[in-house]
Design goal:
The protein is of the alpha/beta class. Helices cover 35% and strands 21% of the residues. It contains 13 helices and 19 strands. Strand 16 and strand 17 form a beta hairpin. The mean pLDDT is 93.
């Protein structure tokens, strides 16, 4: 009806906050909206605006509340506009009630477990009016064959599992994403085959802890076995990536499969979180400093060219300077290619939020600055050592900063900018890395 009145297609804008799991969910949500007649726009002055939210850190919540203030003004100027919220933040205790009380202009609210119901919720809102909220506390369902509108035609994420059973003491993910449930390998392979037939050459297998894939299936399958099947049964896939790996579950079998594979990228994201065994126990990570270092040695012995990245939290409750020095010690010994560094964020409902001895903000900031300096110095040295090599690059996009350049990614996930045109996007090109720029390379096509 509204489309006829306006004399044009209705527009939809999705803003994604958080991880690659959320990004993949947003592709599915956009696919559903396009199936029912919406066209995508980047403008938040759209007919339908959907925020797919994150709640891993408090700042992510504050960002959403801030953006809602902007959307309120948009809706005042255009009362026909529809606003929806979904994702992890909606599963957090108290959030939906706060939105109902303070942000009553929001039209639709749903969580992480029922994204497949978007069209139904939209219809319900249009026919019944008022705020439509549908939050599932948990689910055992995995809904297959949802429509997807991919951001890139040549690469795609593929969910292999949902939820998490680890319950790290600082993390809210198991509470908002639910318990682990794995997709059947046949369904995963069928999806990858469809992607390959549609021109996809690189996939990213996604799960909160991919190393525990298959444990919930009636006939258990290991993650290493799944990787082997994908490599053997989908020949048109050139690159396979995955994240995230939990150190406690990374098996010798997986290391052996990665070593012998011609398709699995020489990259591994292996979250450390802390280098202190004492803090790791408080975090409920179920490994210690020594076992983490032994695991890295095992990985590097099998694959000397592997690029390792990690996550590190600074300021966990009770962290002392000695604990922090342990973290710096691991960083210096492992020498990560890159690291995502975070200041501890108290999440209500997690065990760590109730812990005593919260670290003063001034101390946390000082440690965070020192950590960042150490990480960046090592990354810069590793990047510089790669200059002069010829590497295969998957070209991803036109460089928006330098005219006449394109941007691509190495197997190890480093970024390289080099002269080229849009016709190269989605292709694999041999590139000489001519100059290291700290966190990325400049290059030229190697003829």
């Amino acid at each position: 009806m509204q489309e006829k009145l306006l004399g044009r297609k209705l527009t939809a804008c999705i803003r994604t906050f958080g991880c690659q799991m959320n990004a993949r969910d947003s592709e599915k949500l956009l696919g559903i909206l396009e199936e029912i007649g919406y066209v995508e726009t980047e403008s938040e002055n759209a007919d339908f605006v959907l925020y797919n939210t994150c709640t891993v850190r408090e700042n992510a919540n504050l960002k959403v509340y801030g953006r809602l203030g902007y959307l309120k003004k948009c809706k005042e100027a255009n009362p026909q506009m529809l606003i929806a919220l979904c994702g992890c933040m909606m599963q957090e205790a108290g959030v939906v009630e706060k939105i109902k009380k303070s942000y009553r202009f929001v039209d639709i609210i749903f969580g992480t477990h029922n994204i497949f119901k978007l069209a139904e919720l939209l219809y319900r809102h249009l026919t019944e009016g008022g705020m439509t909220a549908d939050i599932w506390e948990d689910t055992s369902q995995i809904v297959e064959e949802l429509p997807v509108e991919r951001k890139y035609p040549f690469k795609s994420g593929v969910n292999i599992m949902f939820g998490c059973n680890n319950f790290c003491s600082y993390c809210i993910v198991p509470y908002v994403r639910g318990r682990e449930r794995s997709r059947k390998p046949e369904d995963i392979i069928a999806e990858v085959q469809k992607l390959a037939a549609d021109g996809v050459s690189e996939i990213m297998l996604l799960g909160q802890n991919v190393n525990s894939y298959g444990k919930t299936l009636e006939e258990p399958v290991t993650f290493a076995q799944l990787l082997c099947r994908i490599e053997q049964e989908v020949p048109d896939i050139r690159r396979i990536r995955f994240m995230t790996s939990h150190p406690k579950d990374l098996s010798d079998e997986l290391i052996a499969v990665m070593k012998d594979s011609k398709k699995i990228c020489r990259q591994l994201h292996l979250p450390l979180q802390s280098g202190s065994s004492r803090i790791l126990r408080l975090m409920n990570r179920r490994y210690d400093k020594e076992s983490y270092l032994k695991l890295v040695d095992k990985i590097r012995t099998a694959m000397p060219d592997i690029a390792l990245s990690t996550d590190i939290i600074v300021g966990f409750p009770g962290e002392t300077e000695a604990d922090f020095q342990d973290t710096l010690d691991v960083i210096r010994k492992v020498r990560f290619d890159s690291a995502f560094t975070f200041i501890y964020s108290k999440r209500t409902g997690t065990p760590a939020a109730a812990m005593e001895d919260q670290v003063p903000k001034s101390v946390v900031k000082d440690r965070f600055d020192r950590l960042l300096q150490e990480v960046q110095a090592i990354s810069t040295e590793i990047c510089a050592a790669g200059a002069g090599r010829v590497e295969e690059v998957l070209v991803e996009e036109v460089n928006t900063q330098e005219e006449g350049y394109v941007t691509g990614r190495l197997s190890g996930n480093a970024i390289v900018h080099f002269p080229g045109g849009p016709e190269l996007i989605g292709t694999f090109v041999k590139v000489r890395l001519t100059e290291a720029k700290g966190f990325y390379y400049l290059g030229e096509i190697a003829f």
